[in-house]
Automatic annotation (TrEMBL), chains A, B:
Function text: Catalyzes the ATP-dependent conversion of 5-aminoimidazole ribonucleotide (AIR) and HCO(3)- to N5-carboxyaminoimidazole ribonucleotide (N5-CAIR).
GO cellular component term, pick one: cytosol
Pfam families: ATP-grasp, PurK_C, RS_preATP-grasp-like
Record-given protein name: N5-carboxyaminoimidazole ribonucleotide synthase
This protein's UniProt keywords: ATP-binding, Ligase, Nucleotide-binding, Purine biosynthesis
UniProt EC number: 6.3.4.18
NCBIfam families: PRK06019.1-1 (NF004675), PRK06019.1-2 (NF004676), PRK06019.1-5 (NF004679), purK (TIGR01161)
Group of enzyme by EC: ligase
Catalyzed reaction equations: 5-amino-1-(5-phospho-beta-D-ribosyl)imidazole + hydrogencarbonate + ATP = 5-carboxyamino-1-(5-phospho-D-ribosyl)imidazole + ADP + phosphate + 2 H(+)
Residues the record lists as binding ATP: 108, 148, 153-159, 183-186, 191, 214, 271-272
């Protein structure tokens, strides 16, 4: 039995109280763990399934210290946990997947440089710290191109597309002159993701590659099996493992990729990584031996990883805003597994739940 | 959409805070419900996954009234909730599966009389309210026989076997002269159970019949498929539905039966019913479309029932007392799905968790 592993009954601290924290807490409870959720928002859905809650800001050192003192390991459900918060906590107790993975994913520039250092393709990019930088970058990368803030972007926030004829200064203005990255436009056939889990002892497992469709920059569906050649899928899995190993990662890592078709061949371009359980892995709750949530908890607890094999074909569809009003019809639909997050208020664009439509494995 | 159904975000009250309450709360959370657990024991495992908790006795009317006022429906995880408590609460809010089902299952004599009135076989029995009654009953039913208290028995508690030569007075003494029932001995080949779920609209579904093995009066394993003829299985399912309908039952009902072999034919004898989710249904978490916990929650919430079909063969093994110390090996075992209840203290005879061993469906 490895030294680092947590006994049942131990307490897992989770930074962030959204639906990912909620599903992590449920998975942890099924293995006999207690969860303590730390979140600034007193109305967090994860509070409803946790043994303990702290409502405080990520800068409140007294609250953070008390939290760290009450738990046996800390993880997070979103990558924008301030690095200073993670470092402060990690003086007291292990913070996993790790401060390094957080840092790499919080800054689009570092993230791309890491990929490049690992020999992994990313879209052509250039750092933008001034309007001059932006104009030079547009010259080099061409249009259309996408200007993205280096930090704190998600679900399409903090980015603007620059088309031929668009005013570069207006785009720079739109992002508030923040440090940014310009990305060249990638003409991709499909978006896919790799969900890798890596244990405390370095062992890894990867779920089947997932094909993702976005609407309005928000994930709409994830489908397994993905329409991808076996050799490209193998490459996507290997690439995910390479990133996890480079970051000495512990837990579940999501790698979002573009699948580019060039003549008869396929090529993968990494778009971004998320150092946490991921919306594109929700199908694993009903389509795989063990869910991404369970495997994340097992990994950070130092437990053996559980079966990542897909036993069914699956299509996960997010329920955004008013989509969740159809809960009664979804609850009655054969083969549909409904998951709702218990959010009190439905707002446009808000993720309220998801449904996994499961069918016999063919692919 | 039926009138009685609860919207996501509603609160489900659960009387009792053990592992059944815990697994019900987790299933409820996955459908977007909040749970409020009411239990006299401040160390209850279900508290760790609930949005709200009340620690108070089942006789505390102020606490009960506040509880009823805070929830949209009430259910229970054990059948020994005092009938007065259930009646008190049901003046304020629906208590399901229902006061009638509670009453029927709390008294072995009423239970057997109900079965008989439905034309369902039970072991030969006689009411025992005095030593004279007991002696007359032994004369009529023969030995061995089992003397059971009418109320508050579980896991073999509150019963004593009377063998040829045993002193009847000593047996009566052992049960504290409480109102009892003497049951004739049934020589059965196997024990099986039917798990029936019935919705608010009267619709029913039944899981595959489960074969159960007890050790020291505590459930040891449950196996599906059971070694039972298809026609006997169909009879077991039909009998479960008949009982649920007679009780105007809402939720999951467990019916424990003996399978008696007579020459080449099989006969079913009902042993007892449990008006709640049941240990012999834990395999449904990993072997069926939806678990008994989810279907119980759906039923009491007025939702459509979910798929009860078995997709895999399964053997559920309870982890009693020190069995749970093997958690690391169990967590590493391929095909084994480990469930732990988060109980702080392991005591002999205490249910600490269970493991579902899943394999490809053959039977």
């Amino acid at each position: 039995m490895p030294e680092n592993n947590l006994k049942p009954g131990s307490t897992i601290g989770i930074l962030g109280g959204g639906q990912l924290g909620r599903m992590l807490a449920v998975a942890a409870a099924e293995l006999g763990f207690r969860c303590h959720i730390y979140c600034p928002d007193g109305e967090s859905p994860a509070f409803d399934v946790a043994a303990a809650r702290t409502v405080a800001s990520y800068e409140n050192e007294a609250a953070l210290a008390a939290f760290a003192g009450s738990v046996d390991v800390i993880t997070y459900e979103f990558e924008n946990v301030p690095a200073t918060t993670a470092e402060f906590l990690s003086d007291q107790v292990a913070v996993l997947p790790g401060v390094r993975a957080l840092a790499a994913s919080q800054d689009r520039l570092s993230e791309k440089e890491l990929m490049r250092s690992l020999g992994i393709d990313v879209a052509p990019f250039a750092a933008v710290d001034s309007l001059n930088d932006l104009e030079a970058a547009l010259e080099r990368l061409g249009r259309p191109a996408i200007l993205k803030t280096r930090r704190f972007g998600y679900d399409g926030k903090g980015q603007v597309k620059i088309m031929p004829g668009d005013d570069a200064a207006a785009a720079y203005e739109a992002l508030g002159h923040r440090p940014a990255v310009l990305e060249g436009f990638i003409s991709f056939a499909r978006e896919v993701s790799a969900l890798v889990v890596r244990g405390r002892g370095g062992e890894t497992a990867v779920y089947d590659i997932t094909e993702n469709v976005h609407r309005n920059h928000i994930l709409h569906t994830s489908t397994v099996p993905a329409a991808i050649r076996p050799e490209t899928a193998a490459e996507a899995r290997a690439l995910g493992i390479r990133i996890a190993e480079a970051l000495d990662y512990v837990g579940l890592l999501a790698v979002e990729m573009f699948l580019v078709e060039e003549g008869t061949s396929e090529r993968l371009v990494v778009n971004e990584i998320a150092p946490r359980v991921h919306n594109s892995g929700h199908w694993t709750q009903d389509g795989a031996g063990a869910s991404q949530f369970e495997n994340h908890i097992r990994a950070i607890a130092g437990w053996p990883l559980a079966d990542t094999r897909r036993h069914s074909d699956a299509v996960m569809t997010n329920l955004i805003g008013a989509d969740a009003d159809d809960w009664h019809a979804l609850a009655a639909e054969p083969g549909a597994r409904l998951h709702l997050y218990g959010k009190a208020e439905s707002r446009p664009g808000r993720k309220m739940g998801h449904v996994n439509r499961i069918s016999r494995k063919r692919g």
